[in-house]
What we know:
Strand content: under 5%
Structural class: mainly alpha
Number of strands: 0
Number of domains: 2
Order of helices and strands: HHHH
Distance between the termini: 64 Å
Radius of gyration: 23 Å
Helix content: 55-70%
Amino acid sequence: MSDSQTTTLSPxxxxxxPSLLVQFDTPYQQKDASQFGMWVFLITEIMFFGGLFGFxxxxxEKGEKLIPAxxxxxxxxxxxxxxxxxxxxxxxxxxxxxxxxxxxxxxSHGAYPPHHYTMVENFGLYWHFVDIIWIFLFPLLxxxxxxxxx
Length: 150
């Protein structure tokens, strides 16, 4: 885009944040892109968890033991850590949802003009940090085998 195009907004850009002009031509294009992204996310989640559950179902159908016999000695320690870690994660998610509701309420009353978005950015950092913690917790708690190697 030339300098004359970035400073002059066409009628199609009415009520569209100028910083998004690099990525989206209209608010409708931005909305379509965000909806497409959500659908892609949902489809990949369904495929991932469908494959995960299908794999375990297939193992159970073949008669393979899903739980080793000596897991009873490790169960109490595992579940204590499991509930502590997932409970702490859930607590931080509940706090995050509360902050998000607060930010949405304030945004609906015009508290965040175009150049005053630090609180929203900081919330995004918090939320993604909680997400990264889950990225480490999920494989640790659900994908790593807890049976001793023989």
